[in-house]
Write a sequence for this structure.
């Protein structure tokens, strides 16, 4: 079981989990806080985290564009391994590649997102009432008496 | 680095996240629209430009990858994020 947490300003707390990010080319590059986002198809490394970990999106291959409310944006892709607790999970990260200065500035507050490519390995329990953010392994989920 | 060390790093990073959550209002008042860096539950830097903050940390001999970071926004924008790949 991986434990996450709620964090954020009062009234706007969001579910997060931390992971170590490892790149095939550089090995471990650091820790990242991911917002758990069941609506995201792919895991996305946020612009501040990319800057922080010295990952230059200009040097990475182009990925598919992403779309959400607010429009479309170019992405790049990066093969990586996330270590959640003691669980290593290989995936392809998407990195947003905003082109204009204004777009770059607007995206600074965007966190990294843990999408369904990683979440599909777990059963997810998110309950703000009890402060529970749990990523259950399949055997743990199977042991629950759920309909 | 072994599993125990990795777990310890993740636990420290998460404790730093909790520190920011617990002190959110005071940090926001002190560092509005800044990126703030926290290590071992202490603020070790803050800047409006994250690049500048990374350089601050490196000058202090800290590995930015190990340091918790958070953008403290004064706006109350709803967070609705990119979700669909469009090919």
């Amino acid at each position: 079981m991986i434990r996450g947490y709620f964090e954020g300003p009062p009234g706007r707390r969001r579910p997060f989990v931390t992971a170590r990010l490892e790149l095939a080319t550089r090995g471990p590059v650091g820790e990242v806080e991911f917002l758990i986002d069941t609506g995201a198809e792919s895991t996305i490394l946020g612009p501040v985290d990319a800057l922080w970990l010295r990952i230059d999106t200009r040097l990475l291959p182009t990925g598919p564009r992403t779309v959400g409310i607010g429009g479309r944006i170019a992405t790049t892709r990066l093969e990586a391994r996330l270590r959640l607790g003691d669980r290593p999970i290989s995936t392809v990260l998407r990195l947003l590649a905003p082109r204009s200065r204004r777009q770059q500035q607007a995206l600074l507050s965007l966190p990294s997102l843990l999408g369904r490519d990683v979440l599909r390995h777990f059963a997810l329990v998110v309950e703000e009432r009890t402060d529970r953010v749990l990523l259950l392994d399949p055997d743990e989920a199977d042991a629950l008496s759920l309909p | 680095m072994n599993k125990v060390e990795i777990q310890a790093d993740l636990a420290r990073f998460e404790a730093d996240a909790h520190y920011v959550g617990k002190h959110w209002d005071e940090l926001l008042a002190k560092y509005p629209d800044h990126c703030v860096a926290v290590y071992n539950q202490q603020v070790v830097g803050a800047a409006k430009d994250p690049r500048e903050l990374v350089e601050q940390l490196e000058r202090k001999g800290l590995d930015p990858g190990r340091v918790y970071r958070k953008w403290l926004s004064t706006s109350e924008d709803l967070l609705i994020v990119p979700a669909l790949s469009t090919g």
Summary: Chain B touches chain A through 40 residues (CB under 8 Å).
